[in-house]
Sequence to fold (272 residues):
Amino acid sequence: MNRIKPTNFLILPFIFSLLNGVENYGAIGTSRPGAANPTSSIPTGLYQFEIGANFTTNQGGIDTSITFPILIRMGLFNNTEWQVGFSNKYLTLGILYGEISIIDGLENSFIFTTSLTQNNDSLTEYSVYLPISYSFRNGFSIWGQIAGTFININKCSNENYFTKNSCLDADWKWENNINISDPIIDYSLAIGNSLDDRTNWFFEVNPSEILKLKDDENNPFSIGYGATFLLDNNNAQFDFSMGLTFQKNGSIWKTLAAENYIEWGFSFRLPE
Fold:
């Protein structure tokens, strides 16, 4: 039987010692939780790791899934960062240019990403994000983004927004190998405030419009809320969020095929 060596526990104090070694750049800014991306980049020369555990149930609780997304952000130079993300079968590469000041307290960023699966012929995504945020003097903030995603995916027998990604699983039967293009426009709007110096809460809405839809397909609409908890060294943060996704059929919102999610996350940054 394998025994846990006492030296294995030394990794946690080692990580926290590195966190304390990071210069004072202010509170860590993360891309999680929530749908909107950040409007600021991480400082040049730093590495930031954002790790999550996402539990999702859909189709009335019949289907469940657990994913463990990891996002690595690297500060390249002033206001610019490189991003690498992993989530089950997905690999995402992206670049962010941020801290574009519009007026005092109002800033935005520009993000481009491409996502691939283990089988590049199954799914490829190209996305452009335009986040924007405004901070009030009393700690209250409002933020959101507009995002466009172009998906290149093989068509499968059960075509639905929530099941298209499931077509990558071996259990699904391919109908044919033709590629379809479904541009998706996402909108998100969130509000948040500080409960104290270390704790923040937020509430968001996130509708999507899938272009070129057939009459029997549905558009999703999500609502979510959560909180973040900043550690004393300002270089690490815990987060928690949960929400519900509805489908739209014509002018009617249906909760029967809703998708519920609960997410936990931990983010930290390290020196070069």
In short: The mean pLDDT is 78.
